[in-house]
Amino acid sequence: MHRVLVVDDEPQIVRALVINLRARKYEVDAAYDGASALRLAADRHPDVVILDLGLPDMDGVDVIRGIRGWTRVPILVLSARHSSDEKVEALDAGADDYVTKPFGMDELLARLRAAVRRAEPTPGAESPGTVTTDAFTVDLAAKKVNRSGKDVRLTPTEWHLLEVLVRNAGRLVSQKQLLKEVWGPSYGTETNYLRVYMAQLRRKLETDPAHPRHFVTEPGMGYRFEP
């Protein structure tokens, strides 16, 4: 049984989430402000956190940073903030996913299940060595990609971009994070680089590059690799 910490200052949303989560056999703790959230996270060690950014005592981004100071527990942001800058700020602070209010309960629960699955350790491995999709296989240790029985030639930059996305499989990676990890700390706004290189990866690896299944764009926010 997994434990979920719900953090939101709107009682009706907390109540709806608690009812739906408990009906699906999750254990649930609830907090209505940032200080309580940080205290419950430390005391109860949840398996995933659902966090609203608009809290009465502190910004939700500060809660994310506080939690990230000591744990990698998945954090799913649930917020009415729609601007891409605010979404990117939450992701850069350490959030794993972002759902905008108003939200569909089925979608939220699906993203919650995905976050829990990604957080579960792989038996006998620190990190995945080989990732296989229906179109291609990535061997992280050997730094090779195989498609239809043949090795795919990638440039060093293409490989680095692919590696960051694959190691964060299923997780939304912000544009700023990708730029800094692939091109270096002085980069953060050159999103045209990402568009060019993502198009190249899709052309080389996707079955239908015009309708990518594995390299998904979250407009204004970043990219997600779906195995």
Structure explained in plain terms:
The structure is a single chain. This protein has 227 residues and is an alpha/beta fold. The protein has 8 helices and 12 strands. Helix 6 (156-167) crosses helix 7 and helix 6 packs across helix 8. Strand 7 and strand 8 (144-147) form a beta hairpin. It has a 5-stranded parallel sheet, sandwiched between helices. Strands 6-7-8-9 form a 4-stranded antiparallel sheet, with no helix packed on it. It folds into 2 domains: 3-119, Response regulator (Rossmann fold); 130-225, Arc Repressor Mutant, subunit A (Orthogonal Bundle), CATH 1.10.10. It has helices spanning 11-23, 34-44, 60-68, 84-93, 105-119, 156-167, 175-183, 191-205; strands at residues 3-7, 27-31, 48-51, 75-79, 97-100, 130-132, 137-139, 144-147, 150-151, 173-174, 215-218, 222-225. The longest helix has 15 residues, at 105-119. Residues 122-127 have low confidence and may be disordered.
Low-pLDDT residue spans: 122-127
End-to-end separation: 25 Å
Q: Please trace the helix and strand order, writing H or E for each element.
A: EHEHEHEHEHEEEEHEHHEE
Beta strands, count: 12
Content-based structural category: alpha/beta
Largest sheet: 5 strands, parallel
Domain OmpR/PhoB-type: 128-227
Protein name: Transcriptional regulatory protein KdpE
Main location: cytoplasm
GO molecular function, one term: identical protein binding
